[in-house]
Specification:
The complex is a heterodimer of chains A (about 500) and B (about 475).
Chain A (H helix, E strand, L loop, with lengths): L7 E2 H19 L9 H20 L6 H29 L6 H17 L2 H26 L17 H14 L12 E2 L4 H27 L10 H4 L15 H20 L9 H19 L3 H51 L9 E11 L5 E7 L10 E5 L2 H12 L2 E3 L5 E5 L8 H10 L8 E5 L4 H4 L9 E2 H10 L3 E6 L5 E7 L4
Parallel strand pairs in A: 1-2, 3-6, 3-7, 7-8, 8-10
Antiparallel strand pairs in A: 3-4, 4-5, 8-9, 10-11
Helix pairs in contact in A: 1-5, 1-7, 1-9, 2-6, 2-7, 2-11, 3-4, 3-9, 3-10, 3-11, 4-9, 4-10, 5-9
Chain B lengths: L7 H11 L6 E8 L4 E8 L5 H6 L7 E4 L1 H10 L3 E5 L5 E4 L29 H11 L5 E8 L5 E8 L5 H11 L10 H8 L11 E3 L2 H9 L3 E5 L5 E4 L17 H30 L7 H10 L7 H21 L2 H21 L5 H15 L4 H39 L1 E2 L2 E2 L47
Antiparallel strand pairs in B: 1-2, 2-4, 3-5, 4-5, 6-7, 7-9, 8-10, 9-10, 11-12
Helix pairs in contact in B: 4-7, 8-12, 8-13, 10-11, 10-12
Classes of the chains: A alpha/beta (about 500), B alpha+beta (about 475).
Chain lengths: ~500, ~475
């Protein structure tokens, strides 16, 4: 009588998609969180808001080809989200259990949920949502003693191409809720669809921002260093006052498992109304099996992200844009075209993050020696062709950023660290107080690859940066950062004044 | 079977053939109107008072004309007398007290602290009368139908004409006539035949032995199905929520009722998963427990030869055996064996180091939880699922327990009872403007329960309004 109409109520829509958005956002946004990166999170959320706004006004695509493209997009995000869930479970619940077993069950239940149809899926989300929220609130309450609210004052806006790029990438992930578009007309009452989508965005954005700040208040800039998922890792700190029970991470991880289960269920769901037919169920099973196989491969995250950032999300935006244009009609299209033409020169004036190659200097090595008055003596060695050699740049600066700015002021060129091979630290600087702020900067600025090799030099480090041939066997930067923040030791190769290796030294503590 | 003949001898012949070798069915030649009118009376011995037949014959009795042999046979087997008259092609039913049965007594299950003690009997007629006694409204309709090609069991659908969805009535009639069965001996048989999701461990009919509960269901726009010979009537449609409700929920104050409801919901979750959580935590997630507790649990397990799953299984099965034995044994012995068996087996098992003391606590607590669920059939579903949950907990820790919950949740989400989502009002409660949530996990104050649940017709949902 009431079942079987395969309509999803607006409450089911809200609960299912909000849980998905929050679970993914609260895992990923804190990963980028430092004092400057709140900007990129806000940017990502604004992009998502824009997208969702578009979907409530533009009719969903009817073409099977577009649906297929969209499904591929969701399938890729779903596969990555499933892998993330598997890793979370492995990390916090079932240490030592094979990932295939964990994911196998996860996929089996996803299939079971999908097999039962949209109506059932909506109900499952509706029921699980309160548990999800209660767990998150509980986690926040249990963590309250660990946060330092004064860190909020360190947060500052930062506008730049890097922020926009990272914001776009986060948006690509949060685009997991783009499937809402295909539920237009499938909800009851239909009139509340727009309001519900707005509520999903508002709630999701507020919670993601809150968790990002929350994570920052706990970790500071060190939050995303060496942690699989900062917000999930923070659970290990959660405890009841008085130690009534033990560690609670095994409990709180359920919040993410529930949220990601709901998310994956919506992502893998067929983009059609009603209950899937027998053929579709077989197809769905095959697609889930393929996703399972892909999720077991660690490389799927890299492929998936490349596909997501460069192909599928731009395609989705294009589809939405074209569908929107069609809806606008002839008059609307003309208005939009006029607006775009008017905006175009402005875009040219403002410029974008892209830079020509000749305007960049590819830094190959950076050396750090003690400078005067708490400053560093920094030397940047550049990669260059034989015809156009570039002299190393030496400067006294209080930070890397200051040195970069100084270089730009002098040469009108940006230093590009994407090809940075080595860092050389003078032995004399290791024990100085200045080492801390420098490491913090290296950690928080995403410009430096965590895989960059680090060496210690007995003599002046600047000599090493000048060498044309750079070695490639130092200690990776991320190990140094981990050792620093986790108060452990690590081994770093030592280079003599004669440019010879002299074994390794233990830092910052002796073994 | 054809029409009744005007010729009495033909009718007599039919009766003799049809009820050959039926010694309990008595046939008597009678004469009415000072011997002018010859008749032939047939009745089941014991069901019709001999005294009444001899002295008054039909004068003081309730007489109803019937058409055809089929109706005559049904009436006879229902415990009435039937009378054929010479020169008359109508057969007359002489209503009587029917078959003997247990009289109205206290409800054995579903006991309450406050409210009526009356329970249903094994007679469908009496059961319907017990509902009618509470709802003296001509809009309450009773439609009888016989089921079973050999048992001819009388069933009755009881409903409020202006509250019930007519499609519900059509659906149940369709389902009742979808199978031809030789005999229906209890409402449970009919229940299993007419359920749509018959593989599910969860019942889709609510069963009750309490007339006040059935009357309340009729007032909610639901249908009561009474089956002769069964003291348990069926109520449909039903949802997850209705299995947690008891009659005195509405008789007690809302605070106490809400607390009791909440306890029952919590008990249902624990009845399914508490042993599984114990196994999962002790085998996988010891970090969840404080150090002192885990140390004492480890000490208690010293010398126990089984893994924690083994010892929990052993105790759970022992408990189920005690329970089963307690039901089959006569009342006083049954009660005794429950206490004695539980105590002796539990204590001996601990003393013999077969299980650790904490397992006895876990199993006893789980049993308490399962008994806190008001509906026995519903509780059985949780008791069964507990074993699957335990195996999953042992295999995949809390992840396995979570997967078990997910299975149950997905299953329940797909389940419906006569078109009503089983998980109402926790899902799709927008169908009734979220009104049903006021009488779900918590019971709102009575004055706020102004509307009937979703079972009732959309245009007849107001049940309480202030006068003036």
């Amino acid at each position: 009588m009431f079942s079987g109409n395969q309509k999803i109520s607006c409450r089911q829509l809200y609960r299912g998609y909000t849980a998905g958005l929050i679970s993914l956002g609260a895992l990923l946004a804190p990963l980028a969180m430092n004092r400057e990166n709140l900007t990129q999170i806000v940017f990502a959320l604004l992009l998502l808001g824009g997208w969702l706004l578009g979907t409530v006004y533009v009719p969903r695509p009817a073409s099977p080809w577009i649906r297929m493209l969209s499904y591929l997009h969701y399938w890729v995000i779903g596969t990555m989200a499933a892998r993330m869930t598997g890793l979370l479970i492995q990390e916090f619940l079932l240490d030592g259990t094979a990932l295939w077993l964990i994911l196998g069950w996860f996929y089996l239940f996803c299939f079971y949920n999908l097999y039962k149809g949209a109506e059932c899926r909506g109900r499952v989300g509706e029921i699980l949502f309160p548990f999800f929220i209660v767990l998150l609130l509980f986690l926040t309450a249990m963590m309250w003693g660990e946060i330092e609210l004064e860190r909020c004052f360190d947060l500052r806006p930062s506008l730049g191409a890097r922020q926009l790029q990272a914001g776009y990438q986060l948006f690509c992930w949060l685009g997991a809720v783009q499937g809402l578009w295909y539920l237009r007309g499938q909800t009851a009452p239909e009139g509340s669809f727009k309001r519900t989508v707005g509520k999903i965005w508002l709630t999701g954005a507020a919670v993601i921002l809150a968790f990002s700040v929350f994570s920052y208040c706990i970790y500071g800039d060190a939050g995303h260093t060496g942690l699989v998922f900062p917000m999930a890792s923070v659970m290990t700190l959660a405890h009841f006052p008085g130690k009534v029970v033990g560690r609670l991470d095994a409990l709180f991880v359920f919040a993410w498992v529930i949220g990601l289960f709901l998310l994956c269920s919506t992502l893998f769901a067929p983009l059609k109304d009603g209950e899937p037919g027998t053929r579709e169920k077989y197809l769905m099973f095959a697609l889930l099996a393929a996703s399972f196989a892909a999720a077991l491969n660690p490389a799927c995250m890299d492929w998936g992200q490349d596909f997501l950032y460069m192909i599928s999300t731009p395609l989705q935006i294009l589809i939405l844009f074209c569908m929107g244009l069609r809806r606008l009609g002839k008059g609307g299209r003309k208005t939009l075209l006029a607006a775009a033409l008017a905006l175009f020169p402005a875009l040219l004036l403002t410029g974008c993050g892209g830079q020509e190659l000749e305007e960049r200097s590819l830094v190959m090595a950076v050396s750090v020696d003690p400078g005067q008055e708490e400053a560093y003596h920094l030397t940047f060695g550049f990669g260059a062709s034989e015809d156009d050699p570039e002299e190393p740049f030496e400067t006294e600066a209080g930070s890397m950023q200051e040195a970069k700015d100084a270089y730009y002021d002098r040469f009108q060129k940006q230093m590009d660290f994407n090809h940075l091979k080595n860092f050389y630290f003078s032995e004399k600087i290791l024990d100085l107080e200045e080492m801390g702020p420098l490491l913090e900067e290296l950690q928080t600025d995403g410009a430096y690859s965590r895989g960059t090799s680090v060496y210690i030099t007995e003599g002046a480090a600047s000599d090493e940066a000048r060498l044309e041939e750079q070695p490639e066997s130092g200690t990776p930067l991320h190990r140094i950062l981990n050792a620093w923040y986790n108060e452990e030791f690590c081994r770093i190769p030592l280079i003599t004044e004669d440019h010879l290796y002299k074994g390794e030294i233990s830092w910052p503590y002796s073994e | 079977m054809g029409n009744v003949s005007r010729d009495l001898t033909v009718n007599q012949e039919w009766v003799k053939q049809r009820f050959e070798k039926c010694d309990d069915i008595l046939k008597r030649q009678v004469f009415l109107d000072d011997g002018k009118q010859e008749g032939y009376l047939v009745y089941v011995e014991v069901t019709v008072s001999n005294l009444m037949l001899e002295e008054h014959v039909i004068g003081l009795s309730d007489v109803q004309p019937l058409e055809g042999y089929e109706q005559a046979e049904a009436a006879l087997l229902a415990g009435n007398g039937i009378l054929f008259l010479e020169g008359d092609d109508t057969v007359y039913k002489i209503s009587s007290k029917g078959y003997p049965g247990i009289g109205v007594s206290k409800a054995e299950s579903e006991k309450v602290m406050r409210g009526s003690r009356e329970g249903f009997t094994e007679s469908e007629k009496v059961n319907v009368a017990l509902i009618r006694k509470r709802l003296r409204d001509p809009r309450m309709k009773v439609q009888e139908q016989t089921v079973g090609s050999r048992s001819h069991t009388m069933t009755a659908l009881v409903y409020m004409e202006d509250l019930v969805y007519p499609r519900l009535l059509d659906t149940i009639r369709e389902r009742m006539s979808a199978y031809e069965i030789d005999g229906i001996l209890d409402s449970g048989m009919l229940e299993q035949l007419t359920e749509k999701h018959w593989l599910s461990p969860f019942p889709q009919f609510q069963s009750t032995e309490r007339p006040d509960r059935a009357a309340a269901a009729v007032l909610e726009g639901r249908i009561v199905l009474a089956v002769d010979h069964s003291p348990t009537v069926l109520i449909f449609p039903s949802d997850y929520n209705s299995f947690f409700q008891t009659s005195d929920d509405w008789y007690n104050r809302f605070e106490a009722a809400s607390f009791a409801r909440f306890l029952r919901f919590f008990a249902a979750i624990l009845a399914m998963s508490f042993p599984a959580v114990y196994v999962a935590v002790t085998s996988w997630h010891t970090s969840l427990l404080p150090t002192n507790l885990i140390l004492s649990m480890a000490a208690a397990r010293q010398g126990v030869p089984f893994p924690s799953l083994g010892e929990v299984l052993l105790m759970e099965i022992s408990f189920e055996l005690i329970r089963e034995a307690g039901i089959r044994l006569p009342g006083p012995i049954g009660n005794t064996i429950g206490i004695v068996g539980g105590l002796i087996i539990g204590q001996s098992a601990v003393a013999a180091n077969v299980v650790s003391p904490i397992v006895v606590i876990v199993v006893a607590f789980t049993a308490l939880c399962s008994f806190a669920i008001p509906n026995e059939e519903f509780a059985s579903a949780f008791r069964l699922l507990k074993y699957g949950c335990m195996f999953m907990g042992a295999w995949l820790g809390l992840y396995g327990v979570l997967l078990s919950y997910l299975w149950v949740l997905i299953h329940l989400s797909h389940l419906n009872s006569f078109g009503i989502p089983y998980l109402m009002p926790y899902v799709a409660s927008d169908l009734n403007g979220y009104e049903d949530e006021k009488d779900s996990l918590l019971r709102f104050p009575f004055r706020m329960l102004t509307r009937r649940p979703v079972f009732a017709r959309r245009d007849a949902r107001v049940k309480l309004r202030k006068k003036g």
